[in-house]
Amino acid sequence: MKNQGRLFSKLERAVKGIELIIEVSNKNAALKALKRFGECHTFEFIPYLSLDCSIEDARKLSELKYGRAKDRTFERSFSDSIEHIVSIEPAAKVSIPPMRPGINYYRRADEEKLWNLENIGLYSALERASGSGVSIGIIDTGCDYTHPEISARFGSEKGYDFVEKTGNPMDRNGHGTHVAGTVAGSYCGIARASRLYAIRVLDEDGSGSEADVMKGIEWALKSNIQIVNMSLGSPEYSEAFKEMCYYASSQGMIICAAAGNDGEPTYNYPSSFEPVISVAAVDKRNKHAYFSNINDLVDISAPGVDIISSYMGGGYRMLSGTSMATPHVAGCIALAISAGIENQYCEDRMKSRAEHLYEENVPAEAFGAGLIRIDSMVSSAESKIIRTFREQYKMQGSRGLLGKIMGASGK
Q1: How far apart are CA 151 and CA 148, in angstroms?
Q2: Active site residues
Q3: Using the 8-state DSSP alphabet, how is residue 306 labeled?
């Protein structure tokens, strides 16, 4: 009933077309019936379709499904197909969390260490890991993949543009390029040998559809991308979006998302879905950023105030927001994986090795587990020893491996 109310309320307010997310019991039959109303996308991993259609057709479909039909001709022509539709929801609008205006920063000094990277222990961690062999999807406004900061991180396949429906996901906003620079830039980034993919789901204004974000996750899954960064969100969500995130996580994908910039105890999605890593922002002194959302589903904190990174057009810009904090986490996890930590253990290791943060009059949940510390995550060769031991245990059995260890020690 709640979703029905949201659906009809949105139909009343809509002035142009609308995108619906439709749960179906038979994809082929539903697609055959629905494609006459507009452009359909069939999601491969979950039982849903998206339909981009007119307000009038959306209203007729919804009224027929929920017993409010007024157009008897439409009802008769579509009555045999409605049985394949389980539910109808409006696709939520997603966007970049609101941010302070950026400051252009034209200087690049390779010898200068950036405070945000120092605070998380990056420079010592780079002696142990580089991000090599790890793939990261930037689900955002696209990326300026010609920017010298990140161009080497892209291969021949740059990603995909779900806004323009092309294979050229060029950034027309700047946000995605800034995020990508923090994830893997050669100067201002973390996982400097990783492979990036730009997945454009937001337009030049930083706005988009929940359905396109789901398509982006699906594309990343089919492309075997290990980590996705989503510095975007919405206060609303469909069950389909939730199911897509849960499914992606079950397949081993690590999803990092911005907690939101409302500065209130509110929930943002997808960051507040249980399997998604929700990232809050702190400043240079590791103090809570005033704009960063506070809730019990925040997982970790990362630098998010006055962050210098690449910007479209070849320059650099200083920006603030949980959007800027999130790519620190995606980059750190890529480093951890390249150091030998298996995907399924990364989040636990990240939290257990985080730096505890405390601030008077700020709820502890504002920080999640604390400040991410990549130096602690990849410290020594422990992670590789753990993985090697586990693999050999499976291959040889506990007795054979134990005998080797005891023999090597001379006991």
Answers
A1: 5
A2: 140, 175, 323
A3: S
Tokens of 5: 């109310």
On the CB side of 174, CA atoms within 13 Å amount to 17
2-90 carries CATH number 3.30.70.80: yes
Q: Which CATH number fits domain 95-379: 3.40.50.1240, 3.40.50.200, 3.30.70.2660, 1.10.3720.10?
A: 3.40.50.200
The fraction of the chain above a pLDDT of 90, given in percent, is 75
> For residues 351-366, b (16+ Cβ closer than 10 Å) or e, as one string?
eebbbebeeeeeeeeb
Most confident region among 33-37, 222-226, 307-311 by mean pLDDT: 222-226
Give the residue extent of every domain in the chain.
2-90, 95-379, 384-411
For 349, residues 6+ apart whose C-beta sits below 8 A from its C-beta are 336, 341, 377, 383
Q: Please report where in the chains the tokens 């109808």 appear, as a residue.
A: 88
pTM above 0.85, yes or no: yes
198-230 pLDDT, tens digit per residue, is: 999 999 999 999 999 999 999 999 999 999 999
Single out the residue of 24, 257, 313 nearest to residue 145, CA to CA: 313
Structure-token match 């197909």, residue found: 81
pLDDT tens-digit map of 39-53: 999 999 999 999 999
Structure tokens at 146: 């010609």
Which residues is 41 bridged to in the sheet? Answer: 50
Mean per-residue pLDDT, 282-308: 97
Distance in angstroms (rounded) separating the CA atoms of residues 383 and 24? 44
Longest dimension (CA), the chain: 87
CA distance readout (Å), 310 to 108, 145, 216, 411: 10, 10, 23, 56
Measure the N-to-C terminal CA separation of the chain; round to a whole number of Å.
69
Distance between CA atoms of 45 and 329, rounded to whole angstroms?
A: 26
Distance separating alpha carbons of residues 182 and 303, to the nearest angstrom: 11
Cα-based angle 100, 215, 302 (whole degrees, multiple of 5): 35
